[in-house]
């Protein structure tokens, strides 16, 4: 009887934890190294760009428009448009797309919840909150994001659910 009760309690505890996690994504609590944070800050300062807001994880951001309502969470299906650039100004991606927020890079996961539906934000993301030491190639094998790149995104959050 004791084993049956113990087994039932373990099942209930497991099920309730699983239910709370929802979509299966959880906060990874990644913090960029100080050297990467400094590199982003130096880039912003040397280009006379806005650098007034820094997240505890180490990325910088500028809220252009806050938006209305609630903010998305890791389980939210977000619809947005964005332009992604390197610090040399090269655009590596530009799209209007939809995805589950928890399925993307850490800089997006932490940065998008700062704004709400209809909002716009600029993110300056250090490498460890993006692709780190991994280079990203296009379909032809050309490197479009070099390893250890700072990424710059201008994002408009259309909606989420």
UniProtKB/TrEMBL annotation:
Keyword Isomerase found: yes
PROSITE patterns hit by this protein: FKBP_PPIASE, PROKAR_LIPOPROTEIN
Coiled coil: none
Catalytic activity: [protein]-peptidylproline (omega=180) = [protein]-peptidylproline (omega=0)
InterPro entries found in the cross-reference section: PPIase_dom_sf (IPR046357), PPIase_FKBP_dom (IPR001179)
UniProt KW keywords: Isomerase, Rotamase
Domain PPIase FKBP-type: 75-161
SUPFAM superfamilies: FKBP-like
Any one GO molecular function term: peptidyl-prolyl cis-trans isomerase activity
EC number: 5.2.1.8
Keyword Isomerase: yes
Family statement: Belongs to the FKBP-type PPIase family.
Annotated protein name in UniProt: Peptidyl-prolyl cis-trans isomerase
Organism of origin: Niastella caeni
Lineage of origin: Bacteria, Pseudomonadati, Bacteroidota, Chitinophagia, Chitinophagales
């Amino acid at each position: 009887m004791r084993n049956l009760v113990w087994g039932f309690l373990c099942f209930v505890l497991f099920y309730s934890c699983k239910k709370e996690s929802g979509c299966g994504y959880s906060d990874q609590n990644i913090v960029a190294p100080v050297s990467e944070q400094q590199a982003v800050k130096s880039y912003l300062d040397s280009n006379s760009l806005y650098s007034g807001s820094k997240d505890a994880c180490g990325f910088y951001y500028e809220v252009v428009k806050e938006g209305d309502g609630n903010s998305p969470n890791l389980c939210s299906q977000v619809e947005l448009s964005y332009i992604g650039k390197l610090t040399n100004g090269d655009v590596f991606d530009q799209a209007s797309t939809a995805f589950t927020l928890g399925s993307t890079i850490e800089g997006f996961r932490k940065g998008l919840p700062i704004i709400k539906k209809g909002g716009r934000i600029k993110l300056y993301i250090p490498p460890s909150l993006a692709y780190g030491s991994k280079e990203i190639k296009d379909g032809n094998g050309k490197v479009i994001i070099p390893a250890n790149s700072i990424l710059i995104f201008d994002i408009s959050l259309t909606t989420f659910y």
